[in-house]
């Protein structure tokens, strides 16, 4: 008899206990007849690196690995020690598995060509999102996107393998290191969440088939930048306040997105005067979360168009991001459009 991992047990109180990430991946492997097991192994490699980063994060206050590393990355942002550690851990896991031909990382200036021309996949990753929050014990995360290469297997990687729109993703996910550690991912067949059980060293299915509420009453935005917002964003946030929405902003993208995905809400990081193209990175932040959002019935936009339709032009390209419950994102887009129309009158 085939086991349905989403079927409650006979008590009706709990889903099948013991559905590990590894077992779940094997059950879903038939969704990808073209993959021959490589994609499944790649997801396992990412999960392994996440376990190691989880361990390092939990030791940060005791092992002197918190705080700044003393260098800046290509974004001009000060690297934290755990940024560097997480990048090393994921690089090792992805390079040793043999499934990946190239990696795009927030912490690397250029594409990391693994010289593995037989690899079928390209991975874009933010190894540690929100790392400046480590020292104050606030949730942080990892974000990843997986693409199939476009050029023939056996040939060197090319620009077209890297610069793919988010709609070409075959899988995407994030790891949230918080009060519990969760891995949430999609392969285009819904969104599933797994919670890490430290005593067993396994991720267990805890949030099957996540569906985001169509609306909500939470808005997440850095209100310290209000004077730099465009008029449409100001009007929308004012409307949120009029409707008595709750303001919730952690400052870790993964944590803010995860809360709104489960509870209903909207996360906004709009263009500002300082960052007219937005601040979040398209390839390894916005695309992954947009894919997850849409698979969970939510929406993601740059304020004008669907995030997943944007064709990247540069490796560390930035974008505005409005993401969350469908009705809220559409309302925000309407306010932006209305403001633009008024400007032309």
UniProtKB/TrEMBL annotation:
<dbReference type="Pfam" id="PF18913">
    <property type="entry name" value="FBPase_C"/>
</dbReference>
<feature type="binding site">
    <location>
        <position position="126"/>
    </location>
    <ligand>
        <name>Mg(2+) 2</name>
    </ligand>
</feature>
<feature type="binding site">
    <location>
        <position position="285"/>
    </location>
    <ligand>
        <name>Mg(2+) 2</name>
    </ligand>
</feature>
<feature type="binding site">
    <location>
        <position position="249"/>
    </location>
    <ligand>
        <name>substrate</name>
    </ligand>
</feature>
<feature type="binding site">
    <location>
        <begin position="267"/>
        <end position="269"/>
    </location>
    <ligand>
        <name>substrate</name>
    </ligand>
</feature>
<comment type="subunit">
    <text>Homotetramer.</text>
</comment>
<feature type="binding site">
    <location>
        <position position="222"/>
    </location>
    <ligand>
        <name>substrate</name>
    </ligand>
</feature>
<dbReference type="InterPro" id="IPR044015">
    <property type="entry name" value="FBPase_C_dom"/>
</dbReference>
<keyword id="KW-0378">Hydrolase</keyword>
<feature type="binding site">
    <location>
        <position position="279"/>
    </location>
    <ligand>
        <name>substrate</name>
    </ligand>
</feature>
<feature type="binding site">
    <location>
        <position position="129"/>
    </location>
    <ligand>
        <name>Mg(2+) 2</name>
    </ligand>
</feature>
<dbReference type="InterPro" id="IPR033391">
    <property type="entry name" value="FBPase_N"/>
</dbReference>
<feature type="binding site">
    <location>
        <position position="106"/>
    </location>
    <ligand>
        <name>Mg(2+) 1</name>
    </ligand>
</feature>
<keyword id="KW-0479">Metal-binding</keyword>
<keyword id="KW-0460">Magnesium</keyword>
<dbReference type="GO" id="GO:0042132">
    <property type="term" value="F:fructose 1,6-bisphosphate 1-phosphatase activity"/>
</dbReference>
<feature type="domain" description="Fructose-1-6-bisphosphatase class I N-terminal">
    <location>
        <begin position="20"/>
        <end position="208"/>
    </location>
</feature>
<feature type="binding site">
    <location>
        <position position="126"/>
    </location>
    <ligand>
        <name>Mg(2+) 1</name>
    </ligand>
</feature>
<keyword id="KW-0119">Carbohydrate metabolism</keyword>
<keyword id="KW-0963">Cytoplasm</keyword>
<feature type="binding site">
    <location>
        <position position="128"/>
    </location>
    <ligand>
        <name>Mg(2+) 1</name>
    </ligand>
</feature>
<dbReference type="InterPro" id="IPR028343">
    <property type="entry name" value="FBPtase"/>
</dbReference>
<dbReference type="Pfam" id="PF00316">
    <property type="entry name" value="FBPase"/>
</dbReference>
<feature type="domain" description="Fructose-1-6-bisphosphatase class 1 C-terminal">
    <location>
        <begin position="213"/>
        <end position="336"/>
    </location>
</feature>
<comment type="similarity">
    <text>Belongs to the FBPase class 1 family.</text>
</comment>
<dbReference type="InterPro" id="IPR000146">
    <property type="entry name" value="FBPase_class-1"/>
</dbReference>
<protein>
    <recommendedName>
        <fullName>Fructose-1,6-bisphosphatase class 1</fullName>
        <ecNumber>3.1.3.11</ecNumber>
    </recommendedName>
</protein>
<comment type="pathway">
    <text>Carbohydrate biosynthesis.</text>
</comment>
<feature type="binding site">
    <location>
        <begin position="129"/>
        <end position="132"/>
    </location>
    <ligand>
        <name>substrate</name>
    </ligand>
</feature>
